[in-house]
Specification:
It holds the Pfam family TetR_N. With 209 residues, the protein is mainly alpha-helical.
């Protein structure tokens, strides 16, 4: 990865006002990502929209990739919270259908709460400085799903659980990114399709266990 020192904030804000300002920068950046995309996002545009000079912005983030890095970290934090809440469920008592409904709805909420998610995810995948976070995102979800699949007695084989976790990630991540940008009717149908595909995946795997 490129020099991390250049990508992370110069200092961690300790005062409440500074922390609020930092969060404002991240929120505005997420909104701008939705409007202009990653390529046209600049520190000048962010500073102007927030209402500060570029020099002041640099006290918080040295460049736009540092802002995107922090925004991606915030997104991953929300994803971690969602996964922990799922793992807190009494999963062993759930049917596969109920598990799919609960887990898919919980992850959808996480996706819906992140503005500018599609361009952010594209940046995490395509920008070298953010690749580390993209890999962390994938590994975190795969590991969490593998643990839950084991509790559902779908398999006890670590490599099989990892394979299923990766398939779950690839299918759900792709469709959830579509769903959050669809109108209400199409989103409902696509969500139903995602749940059907996910249930089929788990039922087939469990039948072979």
């Amino acid at each position: 990865m490129a020099n991390i020192r250049k990508l992370t904030p110069r200092s961690t804000p300790v005062q409440k006002r500074a922390q609020e300002r930092r969060e404002q920068i991240l929120t505005i950046t997420a909104q701008l990502l939705e409007e202009v995309g990653q390529d046209d996002l600049t520190t000048i545009l962010v500073a102007k929209t927030v209402g500060m000079s570029v020099g002041t912005l640099y006290h918080y983030f040295p460049n736009k990739y540092a802002i995107l890095y922090a925004l991606a970290e915030r997104w991953l934090g929300e994803m971690d919270v969602g996964l922990r809440k799922l793992e807190d469920y009494p999963i062993e008592t759930l049917s596969l259908k109920k598990f799919v409904e609960i887990s898919t709805d919980r992850m959808l909420l996480t996706y819906q709460n992140q503005e500018g998610l599609l361009p952010l995810v594209q940046a995490m995948f395509g920008v070298p400085e953010l690749k580390e976070l993209d890999s962390h995102h994938d590994e975190t979800i795969i590991a969490a799903m593998a643990r839950m699949f084991k509790r559902l007695e779908i398999s006890n084989n670590p490599s099989e659980l990892e394979r299923l976790g990766r398939e779950w990630l690839e299918v759900s991540h792709a469709l959830l990114l579509v769903i959050v940008h669809q109108d209400t009717t199409d989103a409902a149908r696509s969500l139903s399709d995602l749940k059907f595909l996910s249930l089929c995946l788990l039922e087939r795997a469990k039948s072979q266990f």
